[in-house]
Structure formats: C-alpha cells, structure tokens
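Collaboration report, partner site 2.

Our partner group contributed sequences for two proteins of shared interest, and the home lab folded both. The records are reproduced in the order in which they were received, starting with the first partner submission.
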Amino acid sequence: MLSPPLPYTPQSQRTSPTARSRSIPYAHKPPLRLLWSRLLKLTVLNLCLVSWGCNSSAPIARQDDAGNDRVVLMLNWYPEAEHGGFYAAQVHGIFEQHGLNVEIRAGGPNTPVAQELVGGRVQFAIGNADDVLLFREQDAPIVALMAPIQTTPRCILVRASSPVKDLRSLGGMRLQANAGRPFLDYMKAEGLLQNVQVVPYPGTVANFVTDENTAIQAYSFSEPLLAEEEGVQVRKLMLSEIGFNPYASCLLSTESYIEQNHDTVRRMVLACREGWKKYLESPVETNAAILSNNKQGMTTEALEFGVQALRPLCLPNGLPADEVGMMSPNRWSELVDQFVQLKLISSGKVTAESAYTPIFLDRALTADQP
C-alpha cells in the first residue's frame, strides 16, 4: 500500500483572527504550499485514489454507556467563531438531547479532513463547499449535510481611505493572496486581476497596515479586526458580490457512513442546526468554551467580533433562524458550473447531486421528524 499522500488543505491559509504574526508559530506558511503547482497536485491526487481506496471504511456508530452514539467531529481550523454552532450544541447539551456523544477535534494548518473522513477515523468534519467539489474531483466520496454560513466570508481587504471601492477597481494594487485558491482563479477569469500584482499572503496584516497600496485576502470576521486593532479602518470587498459564493463551515460526512448510519446522521444534522441557532442568539457561554479550546491567542473580543460578523452571513436576506443550515440545489449547481468553467473539476465527474444531500434538511427546526 502506498503511504498517505500530502493532504489538500481545506481551510484558507491565514493567521488566527486574534494573534499577531510575531506570536504565532504558524503565521508564515511553508514555502512549499506557495510554490505548489497544479501539475504536482495531479500527481498527488492520483496517489490519493490508492490510499483512500485502501483505507475507506464506514463503521456502524458506537455507543457510550448511556446509549448515545459516539462520533468525532473534526474541525478544519483552530476553534473559532466559524465553528460556534457546533460548540454550542455541545455546551448546551443539544448533542446529548439527540442521543449523541460528540468529540469535537480541533484542526489547524494542513488538517487532512478528507483523509480522516474517508479513512473512517472521524465520522464528521467541517469544510467549505468549494473544498467538497475538489475532494470529489479527487474521488473522495465526501458529502455536505448542512451549511451554517450561507454567504462566503471570503473578501479582499483594502483601506477605508483607498480609492478602490469594489473588486473591479483593483488595478494598480498589490494583492497578498495564497496561490492555488479557487477564488483567485475566479477573479482572474472575471478580469479582475489585470494590472494587479499578486504576491504570497504572509499570514499577517503587517504590510497592509503600513502600505496603502496593499490589499489582502481575508475573512470578514477575522482580518478586519486585526487591522482595526492596529488603527487602520478597512473596506471589505466581498467575493459573494461578484458571484463567487460557496457555502462555508459545512458539516461533512462520507457516502458510506451516511448510508450505514442514516439515523445518526439525521440527529447530528438536527443537533448542529439547533446549535447554530442557539449560538447566533446567545453566544456568551459558547464563546467561553471556544476560548478554552483555542490556545493560539484567541480573545473574548475577537469571538464577539466574529459572531457579530457571522450573523448576516448565516441568516442573509431575512432567512428565518429556524432555517439555519439550509442548502439550495441552484447554489450547488452554480458552483459546480463555475468550477467546470475554471477547469478545477471535470465536467460530469462532480455533480451538485453528489456533492450535497438535502434529505436531512426537509423541514424547519420547529418540526422535528421521528
């Protein structure tokens, strides 16, 4: 059997939303990631087919002494506000109410979400919708179950005083962004990177706060706070406003686990949705739990900033709180079409129907099913 391949990194490479780069050991990412070419990725992905095929398993859910199903939920990054609803389900006993004993396992840089899921070492994980499409292109049978963050937090950050008012007026700027990310492919295809110097993102806002001609990749609930703490007011140019809008912080599992543990998955989805509703309404206790589980410089202020920024992303356009986590077939189809056009996935190989399932989202939270 071949040794496990290098993992695809699902989470945007970025600094912790609360810590300065000088105090974070992972702030500067390995040069190999920045030089990673698509050709080399293809070689690695071929190895993934062998490794995943040999290790794939979907055990029936185990139970604890109280009769609750024991499962592991792997995060795609260190615990932060973007994972708040999952922690809320744990803090407020919602998992237990639904017969679940959930271990939330923190992630970090290069978290091998796909390998852990397909290898059966975890039953659930967190990832973004664009990650799901790339996983499935690699023949990893991963499926999205719910999407608490409806509007992508991905944005480009410029100074509030900058003449750049939107993403179509970036010409002449220096953009710090990680190579190989789908949003850059989309921006290039839309002609938004003409006369823009794209350089590696160092995982810190240091250059941004000292150079008015620098823009940076960002998450709307993260880097803006870092810049404002340095006395720089910012303008967020949201990628969703130009049509790039993958769901974020999706709950993921595998086709085989879903098939063999249908009721466990149903209860997990319901509990996570209830957790997200609780977190958006009352985050204080949950933020305390996140703070105790994040040793990377997290602060209460950063979590408060994060949840405030998340609310309109989780419940956009008046979406009722009881419908948190819902997913649209049209949104998935649009994302698949975009990735096919960008040549990130193969036409016909990855479909919206295979990338997500709506069967656990057929009603609002106020109407639990037996």
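Second partner submission, folded after the first:
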Amino acid sequence: MALMDRVRDAGRVIGGLCDRNAELHKQIEEIRTSKAPKAVAATEQRASDLEAEATHLRSELKVDKEQNDRLQVHLKAARAEVHLAKSEMLALNQKLDEVRAEAQPASEALAD
C-alpha cells in the first residue's frame, strides 16, 4: 500500500508541477507583451527548470508504477499459493479426522 500511496502522491506532485508550468508559460506571454527581457529570461528559466523536474518525476512515477505492477503480480501469486495451501490443509485435516475415527475402535480394543 505504501508504494501505491507513493505513486499516487508522485502523480499529484506531477499534476501540480504541470499546472504551475502552464501558469508560468502564461506569465511569460504576459511579460513578453510588456517587453521586460530580464523577467522573461528568468521566467523562462524557471519554467524550464520546472519542466525538467516534472520530466524527472514522470520517469520516477513510471518506474514506481512498473514496480507496483510487478509486486501486484507477486501478490496475486502469493494469494493463490495461500489459497492452495489452505485447501490442502483442510483436505489433510479431514483425512486426519477420518483416520482418527477409524483408529478409535482399534485403540479402544487395545485398551481393553
């Protein structure tokens, strides 16, 4: 569950960064129209930095999703093994009860 929470959190962070990036692009266009070159350069650099961070987080998210998928497969296999083991245990318990029931008269006869 922690991995799924981490993946979900990373998705939210990426979404927030994408929204912030879009906002910065909008600000760039507004600043360009006002002809403030230093502000434009700073804003473009910040937007570029945020885009790089978003790209990095997307790659981390992809890796985490792949790991989550692999773990889900292992979990499914483990659950199947547990189910099979429980079924075998029940069958063996039934067989044990049957053998005990069959052995009870012989045990009582030996005790007499």
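Feedback sent to the partner group on the second submission included the following. The chain has a mean pLDDT of 87. The two ends are 60 Å apart (CA to CA).
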